[in-house]
Structure formats: structure tokens, C-alpha cells
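Exercise 7. Predict the joint structure of the components listed below.
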Amino acid sequence: MSDTDVMERPTPQKRPGGRTAEVTRRIHEAILELLVEGGIDACTFQNIASRAGVERSTLYRRNPDRWPTIIDAIIDFAERETAPHDTGTFRGDLTATLRNLARALNGPLGPALITVAAALQTGVAPGQGERFWASRMERLGPMFDGAIARGELRDNVDREAIFSMAAGPIYFRRLIAAKPVGDDWVRLVVDEICGRYCLEN
Amino acid sequence: MSDTDVMERPTPQKRPGGRTAEVTRRIHEAILELLVEGGIDACTFQNIASRAGVERSTLYRRNPDRWPTIIDAIIDFAERETAPHDTGTFRGDLTATLRNLARALNGPLGPALITVAAALQTGVAPGQGERFWASRMERLGPMFDGAIARGELRDNVDREAIFSMAAGPIYFRRLIAAKPVGDDWVRLVVDEICGRYCLEN
DNA sequence: AGTTAAAGCAACTATTTGTTGCATTAGTGG
DNA sequence: CCACTAATGCAACAAATAGTTGCTTTAACT
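Solution:
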């Protein structure tokens, strides 16, 4: 009560363990289910809360905006689904990565993935788009590192450019053209990328 | 009043002229503005109505679902922006088309375009995705027709596949990787496509 | 074991959604 | 120009959702 500690606000220590982690898990699970069932429109705080068995106020207190919440769930999913590949060749790694991507996009959550990613560019959630993309590229680091170490790629290649050329047609075919993405399509893309960027050997 | 015409409901004749057309124009304009300013979340019937100076009930009566309404505005925009190109070569036409696409995507409405297109695949608006895509491909018909007629492409090429390979990286780079799409990027894509699909000459 | 984040609970207001009956305007065909 | 009526305007609804808040309970950390 003394006036000496009026200004003291000892920065509340976080408690991310146990219950909190479980609540987070349930929230993410609920969001993914809702995205599959009803798309973005279904992802209201109300729906998320009741589906996850969590209080609505908890969601608002964690983050008053629903977009960062949704992004968290998506990134969480993407990181769980994105297994690292090390086949020994860039071609093999890229093929595995794109097959993995195609599998995710072909699945029920595919459309929601790009809907969210695209929505991030509309200004609804400043900074979240970069967060998502950075998370994606970080997972691809080892693939490029290995290829460069083996001399398959020049060490100054534009990694984002290469991945954009590779993943672009995969995304597009599934989500704009609404066509299935099969192994043949993946192989076509891989051939183009390797033919253009891989050093001769 | 006779019972002879009880079943007669002479399918009310439409009146698409004058006022109705003007209202449609204002609605589309309002939607595009809202998409630019606040993304999908801003496109509520309430916002659209007040922005367009139209009664909310009119929107509900025209279509109780907001997605077809939004798609209409997007398609309308896309068709207005998509000028036909006839440069005399497939490479020229494709370059012009992709530059056009890049320009649209680089603009303020770019992110909204793909957000909507992607949202269509989530089941929020059955059939609307196909409608959008069909509208897009239809505009590209002359380009392929001309190229085939000139012998630059085989007459059995998969037009959708080619356009997916071309437009995919454009979309991706702008809207997932959030990088600008410059002429250099367009040229890179064009080189790949032409190198792979154009017949030698 | 004590401290205190963090979640639960409950009540509340404001906003948005979706609907409907009636009045008014104006496109269309004669 | 007139009559008909589709389409919009207007206004008043109920229902759902969005946010917010004070208090209680649980359980993560030291």
C-alpha cells in the first residue's frame, strides 16, 4: 500500500504449461474442424469456443482478434504436417516436399489453408502473413542447405523464388483451377525446377 | 379468380434495365471498395448496403447469400480489367496476359481476388468457384486459338494446365510469399512455358 | 504450500443478421 | 401515353453474434 511500489508491475510471468497448453490444443483442433466443415465463415469465436469446450471470454482475453488465433492453428497444423525430407538429392527432396504439399492441399483442409494465407494479405491481420511465410520457408532451409552443400544448387540461389516457381502451380491448380494435384503434376513441376536451377552433373 | 389459372404463375419477367442495372453497378463498386479497405470481413451486407446507398433488404432479396454477390462483383471487375491481347505471337500474348494479371494482383484489389477465389473452394458457395474459373478460361480462348492456328502450340494442348503453370507462380509470389511481381518475374515464367510447350520454329 | 496466472462462469450491451409487410418508384409492353 | 407489376425503398421486427466485465475457481510455477 505504500507509495513506493505504485509503479511496480513485475511483468506477469507466463504459464504456458499443462492446462493452458491443453486449451490451446483444443482451440486449434476446433478451428481446423470448423475450417473443414464451414470455411472461414464458420470460424466465429462462438463456434470455436463451444466446439473446443472453452469459454468465449478466454478467446477474447488471449487475443481480441480472431485472425491471429486462426493463423496459430494453421501454422501449428502446417508444422505438424510438414515432415522434413532428406532423400539425398535435391530432386528427391523437392519431389517429397511437393508431394507432401499436394497431399495437404488435396485434403479437406487444403482450401482453408490458402484462404487463410490469402486473407492475410488483405490487411485483416498485419504482420501475420509474414509470420506464416517465414515459418514455411524456415522448414525448407535444410533442403536448400543440403543441395548447396552437395553442389546441386549455386550458393546464391533465391530460395523463395525457386519455391514460388515450384509451389505456385501446385497451389493454383488445386485452389483456383480446382483440379486435383496428382504425382504427374508434381513431376512436371520438379522437372522444370531442376532443369532450370540445378547445376549440371 | 377462376380455378383454371390457379397454377398459373407466369414466371415474372425480369427487368434488368435502368434502375436495376444502376443498383447492381453501385453494389459491385461498393464491394470492391470494401474489399480493398477491409478485406472479406468488411464485406457484410450492412456495409455493402450503406456504402452503395442501397437498402439491405434489396441485397437479401436478390440473393440471401453474400458469396454469390461478392463473386459477381469480382467477375465483373475481372472482365472489365482483362483486355484481350493479340500481339501476333503466343509469347507476346502470354506476356501481355501475365503482365495484366500481375498488374491486377499488385493493385490494391489483388489480395482480395485470391481470397475470394480460394474461399470458393471451401464449400461456402457451391458452384461459384467453377463459375469464376470458367469465366477466366473463356477469356483466354482466343489466345490459345490463335497460337494453335499459327502452329505455335499443338492443337491438343491442355490449356488449363498451361495457364496453371504460368499463372501459379504469379499468384503465389504476390499472395503467399508476399513479394512484388515485376516484369522480370513474368519473363521468367514466360520463358519456361514457351520453352516447354511451344513447337520449334 | 503459497502465490497468482489463467481459465470458468454469468450477466450485460451493442452490433449484425436475416425476415417481412407495406408503400413507392420506375421498367416494360401495349 | 397508359396500365401493369417488377424492383426498390422503408420500417419494424426477432435472433444470433460480438465484445466487455466483475467475480470465482483451478492449477502452474517457485
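Discussion. Chain B touches chain A through 42 residues (CB under 8 Å).
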